[in-house]
Amino acid sequence: MAAPLMKSVSGIRGIVGESFTPELLVSAGAAFASYARYGTVVVGRDSRPTGEAVAMNMISVLLLSGCDVVDIGVVPTPTVQVMVEELNAAGGIVISASHNPVEWNALKLINSSGTFLNPADIKKLFALMEKEPVFKKWNKVGKLTVNNEANALHIKRVLDVVNVKNIKKKKFHVVLDAVNGAGSIITPELLKSLNCRVTMINCTPDGIFPRGAEPLPENLNKLSETVIKSGADIGFAQDPDADRLAIVDEKGRPIGEEYTVTLVADHLLQKEKGRVVVNLSTTKAVEDIAARHGVPFSRAKVGEINVVEEMRKKGAKIGGEGNGGVISPEVHLGRDSLAGIVYVLEMMSLRNRKVSEIMDEMPAYFMKKGKVSLKNTEPIGNIISRISDSFKNEKLSQTDGLRIDFKKSEEFKNGWVHLRSSNTEPVFRIIAESDNPQKTEKIYKYFAGIIK
Predict the structure, then answer these.
(1) Which domains does the chain have, with CATH numbers?
(2) How many CB atoms are located within 10 Å of the residue 130 CB?
(3) How far apart are CA 242 and CA 368, in angstroms?
(4) What is the pTM of this model?
(5) Cα separation of 260 and 244, whole Å?
(6) Among 27, 34, 96, 98, which one carries the catalytic annotation?
(7) Catalytic residue at 98?
């Protein structure tokens, strides 16, 4: 059976040579050229081995369709978003399958405002892909430009929002694990500009991931060991396209990627009050932080653009996703590990506290995330309906799959679970959280059993 092609608000992704083919790239490239009204398109990619070939194909299709193309090479996803804004481009394409394994690749599609296509726009694009590609005559093809300024412009953006002088004074020792991805070049440059001593591991941008691509605690053993061995102040871990950030404290303990946005929210709200927006799967710790600062809080569907649109609508100060994705409007409206890094370093410098000491002040929750392959022949909608009926006396949200906040159940009280189909993998996701690890495990096992 051929590998599935995943088409969603998160873009188009599949396994190269199976579902992710040259024919697909021609269709998607010609459709995006039409969507962008044949304007200038910025193209960037992560470091995975298939990236260069895919980029060459995509650039060729865009040029033949009549678009001018700005190639910015191997860069983080947020760097492409920043460059679309900086160049007033008609759109951007990031060639990256993000946290998916190395055999996958993907197209992340950016509009003229520097944010991902929303559900309505992605639907239009998919409809355009059904049409026969139209290419220009020889004298109407686009022009290709290579731009090497993207990293510098992105670094300037994030430095402009923090007290650089204070951070520099601390001369922090930072260990960086970039998983040999797109953050391998730009992130050491950023850290060195902040007068940090940088110990680099997995910072060769060859796209051969030496650990699991996601910056989850179980994938950060080498980072933890290096932080302890080198006596560093903090460890940072990124995913392959560097839009997600995880943190290891000075004792070598991963704090969990859910707490990246929690820390940043607490820091920014201490500087200035404002609304907080996260997705339905993000830790309740962020909600508690918003309450602590007396600011409004809301949740959006999973997917970066869904959070971004809610932030725009409500005028949020800070937002993000619990996968380590920090979204700061004062930098740009997209998940950005570099923004997360500078905010956390500023927080440490202003509070004059170690990461573990700051974490002691955070609300404590225990989360378990997992995914289940759908072997059950029963339609997932029927399963969700059955579960909803069983827990109709609890607080339910069906905005995105099903989220249950347990208010009355004695066994699950003060916990929650979110059940939803993945946008990026052919699986069903289960996220459970409570104030007790044993309770969280019970919640997770109960619902995993039903889904299976």
Answers:
(1) 6-149 (3.40.120.10), 158-359 (3.40.120.10), 366-451 (3.30.310.50)
(2) 8
(3) 23
(4) 0.94
(5) 9
(6) 98
(7) yes
